[in-house]
TrEMBL record:
<feature type="region of interest" description="Disordered">
    <location>
        <begin position="136"/>
        <end position="229"/>
    </location>
</feature>
<feature type="domain" description="TRNA-binding">
    <location>
        <begin position="231"/>
        <end position="337"/>
    </location>
</feature>
<keyword id="KW-0648">Protein biosynthesis</keyword>
<dbReference type="InterPro" id="IPR010987">
    <property type="entry name" value="Glutathione-S-Trfase_C-like"/>
</dbReference>
<dbReference type="GO" id="GO:0000049">
    <property type="term" value="F:tRNA binding"/>
</dbReference>
<dbReference type="InterPro" id="IPR051270">
    <property type="entry name" value="Tyrosine-tRNA_ligase_regulator"/>
</dbReference>
<protein>
    <submittedName>
        <fullName>Nucleic acid-binding protein</fullName>
    </submittedName>
</protein>
<dbReference type="Pfam" id="PF21972">
    <property type="entry name" value="Arc1p_N_like"/>
</dbReference>
<dbReference type="GO" id="GO:0006412">
    <property type="term" value="P:translation"/>
</dbReference>
<feature type="compositionally biased region" description="Basic and acidic residues">
    <location>
        <begin position="138"/>
        <end position="150"/>
    </location>
</feature>
<keyword id="KW-0820">tRNA-binding</keyword>
<dbReference type="InterPro" id="IPR053836">
    <property type="entry name" value="Arc1-like_N"/>
</dbReference>
<dbReference type="InterPro" id="IPR036282">
    <property type="entry name" value="Glutathione-S-Trfase_C_sf"/>
</dbReference>
<feature type="domain" description="GST C-terminal">
    <location>
        <begin position="1"/>
        <end position="134"/>
    </location>
</feature>
<keyword id="KW-0963">Cytoplasm</keyword>
<dbReference type="InterPro" id="IPR002547">
    <property type="entry name" value="tRNA-bd_dom"/>
</dbReference>
<dbReference type="InterPro" id="IPR012340">
    <property type="entry name" value="NA-bd_OB-fold"/>
</dbReference>
């Protein structure tokens, strides 16, 4: 394969590190698609030419890794091992203040160096790639503010008509007419009021019926929104970005996250029970898929306004839990939808009614395919409807046949 040939061009000991870490398909067979393989080769070539690893390139690499967990697509490959090997000599000399200034790159480096296959290969090559101690727990919090709301353009005020009389002039012009026949004017006003009253009373019954009819139609429209059998397009899925995460003050198994869903009101507070399954350093700065129209719920004293979509191994939670990842290039607030003409253009409900059990009915069909792509399997037709954005399909990093919730 082209990727395997590219590895042969790497300088020692990085080549030995990559070969040791990618034995037995541990780097996902160098990628799953032709475009992925080409990108992997490009990264390995950059390392071979020593174009990766210099501190002067940290800023660009940090920007590229901000929305990603891995370099290529959403899974671990030989490119990650090669880049880690190239970064190691510089990273091992950095002080905390220096690596804190590149949070995405630091998170990436620490994640790759702690992968079991990389650690095993590195230990076999000691002392070339010792574990670099990185204190992520005490990293300064990133201050990220949502974009300010766009100002609405004020409609231009039409210039006043010079020929039209000013309000005071109009009032003054009307006074002489009123003075000519005060009694007649008063009688006219009383008559007009009486006619209006009679007209109002005469149409009260008819107007009341119309009002009731109109209100009834409005109620029917609201009820019709979630009428019929639950369908997946009723669920509001969006791309989210964790801008802050901490452990719940009163629950050891819960995280409290601030997740940016691209809303003008700013990030939402979300509580998730992932402490025992995903380390906090892998939650920071993470892009994910969130369920945004569940009814807000109190979780041990903290109100949660969404739910993160996670994949649970087919062996159960003991086999691990992973966050579903949106495609590369995703932005907070990007619409996530289900493939299929009956779902792609449908609007989700503004809020799921807990009594209707929409999510509970659809959720058992959520899974990951052989390609690790997230999908919903229609129980009636057994057809697979992939979960995607306009940029591509959402995936689990490693799980096949996982359940999503």
């Amino acid at each position: 394969m082209a990727a395997a040939q590219a590895v042969g061009k790497l300088y020692i000991p990085v080549r030995a590190l990559v070969e040791g870490a990618t034995e037995e398909g541990s780097a996902t067979d160098f990628g799953m698609t032709e475009s992925d393989q080409q990108e992997i080769v490009q990264w390995i070539d950059k390392v071979a030419k020593r174009e990766v690893g210099g501190a002067d390139g940290f800023k660009d690499l940090d920007a590229q890794l901000t929305p990603k967990t891995y370099l290529v697509s959403n899974y671990f490959t030989a490119a990650d091992v090669a880049v880690y090997g190239a970064l190691h000599p510089v990273f091992s000399q950095l002080q905390p203040a220096e690596y804190y200034s590149h949070p995405a790159l630091t998170r990436y480096f620490d994640h790759i160096q702690n992968r079991p296959s990389v650690r095993k290969s590195a230990e076999a090559l000691e002392p070339s790639f010792p574990l670099v101690p990185i204190d992520l727990e005490n990293a300064p919090k990133l201050e990220r503010k949502p974009d300010p709301p766009k100002e609405k353009k004020k409609k231009p005020v039409a210039p006043a008509d010079a020929s039209a009389p000013a309000p005071m002039e109009t009032a003054q012009a009307a006074k002489p007419e009123a003075a000519v026949a005060p009694a007649e004017g008063a009688k006219g006003q009383k008559k007009e009021k009486k006619e209006k009253k009679e007209k109002k009373e005469g149409g009260a019954a008819e107007g009341g019926d119309k009002g009731k009819k109109k209100g009834g139609e409005s109620s029917k429209a609201a009820a019709a929104e979630d009428a019929g059998e639950p369908v997946p397009s009723m669920i509001d899925l969006r791309v989210g970005h964790i801008v802050e995460v901490s452990k719940h003050p009163d629950a050891d198994s819960l995280y409290v996250e601030q997740i940016d869903f691209g809303e003008e009101t700013g990030p939402r507070t979300v509580v998730s029970g992932l402490v025992n399954y995903i380390p906090i350093e892998q939650m920071r700065d993470k892009y994910l898929v969130g369920v945004c129209n569940l009814k807000p719920a109190n979780m041990r004293g903290v109100k949660s306004f969404a739910m993160v979509l996670a994949a649970t191994s087919k062996e159960g939670k003991d086999g691990g839990v992973e966050l579903i990842q949106p495609p590369a290039g995703s932005k907070p607030g990007d619409r996530v939808y289900f493939e299929g003409p009956e779902y792609e253009n449908a609007q989700p409900l503004s809020q799921l009614n807990p009594k209707k059990k929409v999510f509970e009915t659809i959720q058992p069909g959520f899974t990951t395919l052989e390609t690790r792509e997230a999908a919903w399997i229609n129980p009636a037709t057994n057809s697979a409807h992939k979960i995607r954005t306009a940029n591509g399909v959402c995936v689990a990093p490693t799980f096949v046949g996982a359940s999503l919730s």
